[in-house]
Amino acid sequence: MTTAKHTKIALIILAACLLILTACNNQTNPNQTDCQSMSGQAKENCYYEAKTCSEMLESDFKNSCIVEQARDQNNSATCETLNNDKSKGYCLEQIALKNQDKEMCTKINDTYWKDNCNYNLAITLNKEGLCYLLQPTNVEQKTDCFMKVALSKGKVEVCDFLPGQGRESCIFQVAVKTKNAESCDLMQDQINVGACRLKIAKVTNNQDLCETIKFKQAKDVCTTYFEQKPEEITNNNTNNTI
Fold first, then answer.
1. Rounded CA gap, 6 and 17, in Å?
2. How far is it, in rounded angstroms, from Cα 12 to Cα 181?
3. Is 12 exposed, middle or buried (0-12, 13-18, 19+ CB in 10 A)?
4. Where are the domains of the chain?
5. Counting Cβ atoms within 10 Å, is residue 82 exposed (0-12), middle (13-18) or buried (19+)?
6. Is residue 146 within 8 Å of residue 128, measured between CB atoms?
7. DSSP type of residue 231
8. Which of 29, 34, 111, 187 has its CA 20 to 30 A from that of 141?
9. What is the pLDDT of residues 132-173, one digit of tens each?
10. Residue 128, CA atoms < 13 Å, CB-side half-sphere
11. Residue 3: what pLDDT?
12. How many CB atoms lie within 10 A of CB 231?
């Protein structure tokens, strides 16, 4: 086969590939003109894919489109075009998380999304002060926020933001994670202190810690554990709950 024939065949193959790529691009990146020829949900989906949110009719779907557009463009002003506080709140939260911008959370009016914004940033940035900004009535999420930051930082001091049993559980988990038996003594309930030291004795395989346990039942359990020492001690036990 001559060089000219080789070149001709190569050009034909290249042209065919370009046609295929063009067809694929038209399918995956529809433009406004493509969408106008459609109807119903197909038309809405097309506008969504093309990010032509202003042409969409279905309210919730349109709001989702605007939020995604605002996040992609990193433009909080786009959030202001949304028609309710919940959608605006979600939109601003997404931009706050993208930029790790705690000030953006203060611009959210909706309580649910303001709390979520502060919660997610607190965990991302390891800032317990942001947990404190959650609504006092949002006890479960607020407790979880302090707990996760305390565990991430390995600091029992963060647990002091929590009341009662929440504080005890937080100290227990941080003490076990950091394998610091002295942290157990910060708990108020001596049963919890004993359980904490028992847990650390097991995970560190340190029999000497049994003698430091004041609560008799926990001390007896610890002593028996090492007397009946199994062939393989489960040092990697991660069940850190009281």
1. 17
2. 75
3. exposed
4. 57-150, 154-242
5. buried
6. yes
7. S
8. 187
9. 999 999 999 999 999 999 999 999 999 999 999 999 999 999
10. 19
11. 44
12. 4
Q: How far apart are CA 123 and CA 134, in angstroms?
A: 13
Give per-residue burial for 152-176: e unless 16+ CB within 10 Å, then b.
beebbebbebbeeebbbbbbbbbbb
Query: Cα dist. 36→32, 51, 151, 239 in Å?
Result: 6, 14, 53, 57
Residues in the chain: 242
CA distance 233 to 213: 20
Question: pLDDT tens-digit profile of 74-86?
Answer: 999 999 999 899 9
186-198 burial, b at 16+ Cβ within 10 Å, e below that, comes to bbeeeebbbbbbb
Q: Are 186 and 217 in contact (CB under 8 A)?
A: no
Contact 159, 184 (CB under 8 A): no
How far is residue 165's CA from residue 91's CA, in Å, rounded to a whole number? 35
Amino acid identity for residue 21 in this structure = L
